[in-house]
Amino acid sequence: MSVVIVVGAQWGDEGKGKVVDLFTERAHTVVRYGGGANAGHTLVIDGKKLVTHLVPSGVCHPGKGCVLGDGMVIDPYTLLEEIAECQGRGLLAGKELLIGLGAHVILPYHKLLDGMREDRSAKRGKAIGTTRRGIGPAYEAKAGRRGVRIRDLFKPARLKDIVDANLDEMMPVIAHFGGTVPTAGEIDGWIADAIRAGEQLRPYTGDAGRHVAQVIRDGHHVLFEGAQGCLLDLDHGTYPYVTSSSTIAAGACQSAGIGPTHIDTVVGITKAYATRVGEGPFPTELLGEVGDKIRIAGGEFGSTTGRPRRCGWLDLPALRMGVRLSGMQSLALTKLDVLAGMSEVSVCVAYKLDGRELDEPPIDPDDIARAEPVYASFPGWDKLPAHAHDITDLPPTARSYVDTISKMAGVPFCLVSVGPDRTETIRLTDPFA
Ligand code: IMP
């Protein structure tokens, strides 16, 4: 039995969906533990694309357990749509899905507030660039002990009481932001819709923490699927340009409700370059032609919002920080194929700030923005063989790039992905072994 956590080592969008899908072959159960529909995982199986926002990326393996942990903030309508989409493809046909009764619920007013705050902050040039999925307001309500949990959807009187109390506080804020204050009829409509959605979700709900602990006790392999990336972590990321949950490996235990002694290994996912969506410092960002080339070649447009992702060279100080924060013991490298055709590829090996060389980003986001990347350059490579299965199938220049990143990050690679399909993968070690 092994328990493996997979986390994004950068600012999200590292290709976790594909890696989780591959690792699920060996897992009994996959547990998504944080965030909500701000995430978007694109899976390509037999040339067909499936994008999930809430259901774990292990969903494409019929019969494997898919758990949504209590640390998540769940938009019930998005989840119902996703379940229907999966079932339309013959997935989630049995008892695979389990939604934690303690997970929090995103309601229309969370999204309303998220959007209004962003618009207002944008006017001051201070937007976070959120996905506007209501993530921040839902986690605020949770921390403020006035959130709605999945189990509250089954108790109409309790649900109404919580929603009324929330809106009582929120109405003046909505009015202050220049928003349209919802009418009593609209609020009743939101509550009625939430109750209906709850009834539809009810058959899938249960005590997720106990279930996962039991699966581990029964000796099965369990895979924890992180959302976003370590540098978007609420406590340790590039605050305030972060999401509102714990995206590092430690978040898996806290959010899923199991102890840290159960975890065997942590795998980080990094792209062969870097991307970021939304605002916040990004020292290796490429604003010209090379950045555009990477964006087009890598299809770097948000799978949740469609926003073009900011693209840049691989940032080793940021990667080292992710490795440290999550205690990563191995890395999966994705999208190596995207850099093919470039005469030269660069990697930021350190930052220079006020005459000092730093191997990890400084704490203050203004300092990160001021930091000057120190680059090392590598000769590029031509098209990679799509069906490369061994590291020796890679051109020597690509191989040397991979080896150097691993050495400089201080962690070995367990997998190198050379294309979106399951088959376009070089597997080096098995994290469940
Ligand atoms: P929120 O999570 O919607 O509040 O957004 C906060 C920040 O996290 C913004 O910069 C988003 O672009 C970023 N973010 C949230 N989820 C993802 C993700 O899945 N991939 C990449 N960035 C994300």
Question: In words, what does this structure look like?
Answer:
- The protein has 12 helices and 20 strands.
- It is of the alpha/beta class.
- The chain has 2 domains: 3-94 and 208-427, 3-Layer(aba) Sandwich (Adenylosuccinate Synthetase, Chain A, domain 1); 104-203, Adenylosuccinate Synthetase, subunit A, domain 2 (Orthogonal Bundle), CATH 1.10.300.
- The strands form 5 sheets. Strands 9-7-5-2-10-1-11-15-19-20 form a 10-stranded mixed sheet, with helices on both faces. Strands 14, 16, 17 and 18 form a 4-stranded mixed sheet that branches.
- α3 (108-123) crosses α4 (135-143) and α5 (156-176) packs across α6 (184-201).
- Bound molecules: inosinic acid.
- Residues 11-13, 38-40, 128-131, 133, 135-136, 227-228, 232, 241, 243-244, 277-278 line the site of inosinic acid.
How many discrete structural domains? 2
Number of helices: 12
Q: Provide the CATH superfamily of the largest domain.
A: Adenylosuccinate Synthetase, subunit A, domain 1
Bound molecules: inosinic acid
Quick one: overall form?
Answer: globular
Structural class: alpha/beta
What's the N-to-C terminus distance?
9 Å
Instruction: Using the 3D structure, state the CATH architecture of the largest domain.
Output: 3-Layer(aba) Sandwich
Helix content: 25-40%
Largest sheet: 10 strands, mixed
Do you know the CATH topology of the largest domain? Adenylosuccinate Synthetase, Chain A, domain 1
Global mean pLDDT: 95
The fraction of residues in strands falls at 15-25%
Low-pLDDT stretches are none
In CATH's first tier, which class of the largest domain applies? Alpha Beta
Q: Tell me the total number of β-strands.
A: 20
Strand adjacency order, main sheet: 9-7-5-2-10-1-11-15-19-20
